[in-house]
Write a structure and sequence with these properties.
The protein has 249 residues and is of the alpha+beta class. The mean pLDDT is 85. The protein has a five-stranded mixed beta sheet with strand order 3-2-1-5-8, with helices on one face. It binds copper (II) ion. Copper (II) ion (CU) binds next to loops.
Length: 249
Amino acid sequence: MKRHRVGSVALFGAFAFVALTQPAAAQTSASETAELIWGLNLNLLYAAVPITVLVEGILIYTVWRFRNNDEPLPTMENRRLEISWTIATAIILLFVGVATYQVLAEPMVTAQSSQELATDQEPVEIEVVAQKYYWTFNYNGTAANTSQAVGPNNTLSQSDTLVIPENRTVRFAITSTDWLHAFHVPALGLKQDAMPGQHNTIQTRATETGTYQLYCAEYCGSGHSQMLGQVRVVSEDEYQNWIDEQQGS
Ligand SMILES: [Cu+2]
């Protein structure tokens, strides 16, 4: 009878595990950054779900097992149990720490200096400028035609829609002209504060063409919720054509 109960709890746990992890596993990542973050999320879920099921299982079992016990006696000391849960917790925390730091150390998650980038191709460098309540993108290394929008150093400048090539490293230098904003593209796993007087760097390599939503993720005033934009990921050829087109050549 007791074995039967334990079996039921284990079976329920397995179902809960599959049900909870399936949506995360089915998630397709649109960039290397998003893939790393979702991979970590999934690994942590693999550790967290069995622990949750185990703890809740023991709790429910204990409540049921001692339901008619009017004078419960606490366990005064159980050294083996105490050593076990201390070591088990240490191992779990070590796993969480190592797994997290591995992802945090990835250049696609935490941007490093450009020297540490092992890319066969020059990264695309884009300055992202936040201002109440819109986004401006300055494409470094692209000379703007005078008839087009011109950014600092005569670079090609665009507002609201950011166009980036697929399968190529793109570095964003994020800044603000007034006060705090935050550049946030959830589908690409990108989030970085925009602060006046400094450039915060993030980088990614998009792996899926498409159009993704850009949000401001730092409350910045009455127009904050409308401070939106779009990120269009296109093929390398299409990107070059788009640059040429914008330059009017
Ligand atoms: Cu905002």
